[in-house]
Amino acid sequence: MNSKAAVKVAVLVLGMHRSGTSLLGGILEKLGCQGAQTKMGPNQWNAKGYFESPEIMKLNDDVLDALGSRWDDWSPLHPGWHRSPRFSEFRARIAELMAAEYGSASLIYLKDPRICRLLPLWREALTEAGYGLACIHTHRNPLDVTRSLQVRTGVEVDPGIGMLLWLRHVLDTEAGSRGLPRIFTSYSRILSNWTEFSDQAERTFGFSWPLIAQARDARVQEIIDPVLRHYDTPVDAFLNNSATPELAKDCLRVLEAWAKNGEDEAGRETMAAVRERFDQSSELFARPLAELATKRQQMRSLEASHMAEQEPAKRHEINVALRDELEAQQRTFCEQEASLRKELIQANTCLTQVQEEAEAEQAKLQAELNAFADKVIERDQTAAALRKELGQANTRLAQVREEAEAQQAKLQAELKASADKVIERDQTAAALRKELGQANTRLAQVWEEAEAQQAKLQAELNAFADKVIGRDKTAAALRKELSQANARLTQVREKAEAQRHKISSSYTREIQKLHRTYQSSTSWKCSAPIRAIGRLLKGKRRHVS
């Protein structure tokens, strides 16, 4: 229970008539829960009192009457009946009655066995009134319930009808309280160890009883008196009786197990299946059994009326006739009941077969559902693994992007540095070319001067030879001088050629060194694809042309 969301808490005491609900209500009051302002007093059927409001009982009777039912009707109510606009007025009456009976109390208990049948309406009305709900289910051996009802003056419920009433109440209240915080106990367990359910309630409901633990036992013992328990049939005697309806056995087994170990899904499925089968059976036999019960009541009323009207002397004769008629009616009733029981057994057999087929189909569907669930789980796991891998891949991609950006920045820096070096070396090469040009220019000038000097000397030699043909010594000297001049010219040429070769070699080495440096740089490698594409495009242009 979400205690923070609900300011007020209503503990619902749920159980069939004569199942220990009054004892349970009394214990809750002793534990510190507030009961209704008006309470039904004790009588010969309940010496400790009923711990329920007669006003709430009257309201519930009015609701049943509006439904065309009554407290001892075991037939199912129309599905969704509480959503009809007809019952809006009852929700308003419930709100007014709760305010009158409980005021502003924050922890109350509410007890009337009729609520078992009308729980959907009460659940909505109490929630609208601001109560958080907690349910305590109690049950009793159906044989003891029917015996207790059978002997009550003014009630006298037939044992067979009592069994049907027990089934209807426990099945409807179990279905109607689903989704609410709830615990299960029994009349026997309360008498033997009432603290078991009170401790379990604290754990399940999430709150503690207001009365301190030391004071609880003494107060609770005031209302627990096992002597007042007139019937105590062992549960096994009911479950092992072959004449007991299987629906009642299945239902009691679940309730006993829940009271001992707590509820489970298998038990809820069993209770739902029993309720469905019981509802189907009710559609077949509710009307004829109701008619037989009405006839039986009419016979009793007629007998009482005749007994009161006739003179004492004639009463014996009338009694004999009425007894004979009553016995005949009872024989007819028994025959009809036997026939109906036979039909009920046949119907239950058919229902059992249908149930078995439904269970087989359900098992098949469950197996398919489990297989599908396994596939879904497997695919979810695969998807989770893929998501994990995708996350890792995204992380790696981000890292690669960062590394690529860093590498790109580094390459850009190296490319810029290489470009600067290329520019510098281009400038150096240009300077070397300029120097080579200047050297070539100077060499050409020297060569021109040498040729001019040679031409001049040759002219002078020719002139001198013409003038001094006979002068051998002079001519020899001139030839020697000319030879020396030629030697000097050759030396000049060789020096100029060596200087030119030196300058050209130096320029070539610088260019090669620059080319090797550029080819080893990262920018050269990064631009390789571009050069390849360029060569490819040049090849294509040549091919096209």
- Kindly provide the radius of gyration, computed on alpha-carbon positions and rounded to a whole number of angstroms: 58 Å
Low-confidence stretches: none
**What's the average pLDDT?**
80
The helix content is over 70%
Secondary-structure-derived class: mainly alpha
Q: Which series of helices and strands comes N to C?
A: EHHHEHEHHEHHHHHHHHHH
- What amount of the residues lies in strands? under 5%
Q: How many strand segments?
A: 4
**Termini separation:** 91 Å
Number of helices: 16
Most strands sheet:
4 strands, parallel
Q: What is the 3D shape?
A: rod-shaped
Order of the strands making up the biggest sheet: 2-1-3-4
Summarize the structure.
The chain is mainly alpha-helical. The protein has helices at residues 21-31, 54-66, 88-102, 115-128, 142-150, 159-176, 187-192, 194-205, 213-220, 235-239, 246-261, 265-309, 312-467, 472-520, 522-526, 528-544; strands at 8-14, 107-111, 131-139, 182-186. The chain has a four-stranded parallel sheet with strand order 2-1-3-4, sandwiched between helices.
